[in-house]
Amino acid sequence: AAGVIQSPRHLIKEKRETATLKCYPIPRHDTVYWYQQGPGQDPQFLISFYEKMQSDKGSIPDRFSAQQFSDYHSELNMSSLELGDSALYFCASSAGRYSYEQYFGPGTRLTVT
Amino acid sequence: AQKVTQAQTEISVVEKEDVTLDCVYETRDTTYYLFWYKQPPSGELVFLIRRNSFDEQNEISGRYSWNFQKSTSSFNFTITASQVVDSAVYFCALSHMNRDDKIIFGKGTRLHILP
Description:
- The complex is a heterodimer of chains A (about 110) and B (about 120).
- Chain A has about 110 residues and is mainly β.
- Chain A has strands at about 5, 10-15, 20-25, 30-35, 45-50, 55, 65-70, 75-80, 85-95, 105, 110.
- In chain A, the strands form two sheets. In chain A, strands 2, 4, 5, 6, 9, 10 and 11 form a seven-stranded mixed sheet that branches. In chain A, strands 1-3-8-7 form a four-stranded antiparallel sheet, with no helix packed on it.
- Chain A is globular and about 35 Å long.
- Chain A starts with a strand and ends with a strand.
- Chain B has about 120 residues and is an all-beta fold.
- The N and C termini of chain B lie far apart (about 40 Å).
- Chain B is globular, with a radius of gyration of 14 Å.
- In chain B, strand 7 and strand 8 form a beta hairpin.
- The interface between A and B is medium-sized, with 25 and 21 residues.
């Protein structure tokens, strides 16, 4: 069965650079969620989109922005990267909002040097 | 307040022993879901189980079992006859029905199964 696809899987950037993470949800899923997991930490909710509109927002820095496109894929844009942005970024998708079934992607590991 | 507490940060047991991971949650809502996820060293989040607040029945799946008690706001996870492959970080998590998009995770318990 198709799963959530995240690209790239690994990314190395320098401080103050910009990064774009991509998420391709499971086919026919219309809701996408982004989570950030710092080293040794639990995943923290960043933001979600339902039918291409932002649906919920968590502790996402102002330097980050995200959107969901017409084909339901989503991109997380991160600017002015800081060392503290080094983390594993998970995307999850679900069919419908408030779904109890969020399917997680494999994650993108971002390292900021 | 919505919170998930996993008091055990790290546990080590010898292979074939049973081990229980504790999870206590806080929420003012009466309708919610509880989850357990496994995160092996490779980093992916592996879904293990979901329970809703209406169903307090315990569940068993192979060597895994879960004990949900609303009276104590606990959702504990037991691995019977542990194996080295069970070594991972385990997260307990909470989400609210029809209100929140997000899943709220506990801090996780790192489980070491020693051969």
